[in-house]
Amino acid sequence: MNLNNFRFYSSENKGLNTGILKAIKDLVILNRGAFELANHFFYTIPDNQQDIKEIKQKLEKVKVRIELDLEFDELDNEFDTKVVDKLIDELTKLFSLDDQLFKKIRNDYIEAIIFFWKTSSGKYSKVFHEPEISYKRKKCFSKGEYSNIKCDVVYCSTSRDDKSIEMYECKTTMKLFIKYFFKNFSNTTSPSALKNIRSSQRKQAYLSAFYNMFSTKFKKEDLHRYQVAYVTLAPQNQIKYKNEEIKNIGPINIITREKLSSLYQTIINHQ
Known about the structure:
The protein has one domain (about 5-265). The chain is built from 9 helices and 11 strands. It has about 270 residues and is of the alpha+beta class. The chain has a 6-stranded mixed beta sheet. Strands 1-3-4 form a 3-stranded antiparallel beta sheet, with no helix packed on it.
């Protein structure tokens, strides 16, 4: 197989770089303290039905904790009070929106960060949001039950020195996905639960199919590097099934908040 034979078709980016979400993204890429605060906020706040004053008080407490955590890090600019304060102002604006829009921004946040991270101005690399993927003009896995599934962010480089492809499925918390993925069909009667079970299992099958393609169908000289992963704002100790931590689902790794924090310098280098 050859990377040059892949085609990626994205219709639109769902507003990942507009409005309040853009303002938040622009702040978190300026300073790691802001990045850590936003990650904590979107992971822990599921809706905007709470009191704004209480939320701001909570954010101020988290701000102090993050500043202390970053105090002894190697880089002097890890925490910038002015940037973090501006971020808190932007986050509190979310509580003036209707709940549906709040939840959309919450879900889109991690996609926006990963899309920004993988965006490259290099001549031979591109990044796509929820693309339909074809090989030699034929839709990949078109006969599978997961044929209409898409992955949130896909990166592909056809550079002679870096032939690589990466696929990232973004999940704010992973809780519902894990709950339904491991749930038994035979013990479920709720139509909505059955729908969620099928959805999570189709997503896993889709990602696994690409992982297997990359790991078995390419020669080493034709694909130097590949990655297929879930990305989440959840800390590693919150990714659990039956009270045991999990770091992958089948062959698909889970990139947690800790890994995102360690990648932060790489992320901001794409400014």
